[in-house]
Design brief:
This protein is mainly alpha-helical and about 120 residues long. The protein has a single domain, classed as Helix Hairpins (Orthogonal Bundle), CATH 1.10.287. Helices cover about 55% and strands about 5% of the residues. The chain is built from four helices and two strands; from the N terminus they run H-H-H-H-E-E. The protein has a two-stranded antiparallel ribbon. The protein is globular, with a radius of gyration of 17 Å. It starts with a helix and ends with a strand.
């Protein structure tokens, strides 16, 4: 079962209302804001309202919020009849074939967050 099929099944089992593409993209954007909030908490030096009520975030929090972004992007694709995960795999393979390279293991796009707060990304 593909990830997109799992998202469809999740919606069915939870009897969730399917958003249209604009709503799904809006939620993806909101979730991306939560990713930013987690990152700001992790690098320190950022104080939000009532900091005592908001513990410092962890990589687990980051992973969860990134998952929420991916989830809503998949939902947006489903609503338009496309599979963004399959499209990404196809695109990466097409680009690698142009350079005669093949992938046997998944690529991590976000590979490291260092203490200075800067991020390094895999070759996209």
């Amino acid at each position: 079962m593909t990830l997109t099929e799992k998202v469809k099944e999740y919606y069915e089992k939870r009897e969730l209302k399917h958003p249209n593409i604009w709503e799904a993209l809006g939620w993806a954007t909101a979730e991306l804001g939560e990713v930013y909030e987690v990152l700001m908490s992790m690098v320190g030096g950022w104080v939000r309202n009532n900091p005592d009520k908001h513990p410092q975030k962890t990589k687990e929090d980051l992973a969860e919020e990134l998952g929420d972004v991916i989830f809503m992007l998949i939902v947006a694709g489903i609503e338009e009849g496309v599979d963004p995960i399959q499209a990404l795999e196809n695109k990466m393979q097409r680009k690698l074939e142009a350079k005669s390279i093949t992938i046997t293991q998944p690529i991590e796009l976000l590979t490291d967050i260092n203490p200075s707060g800067s991020m390094s990304y895999g070759d996209y």
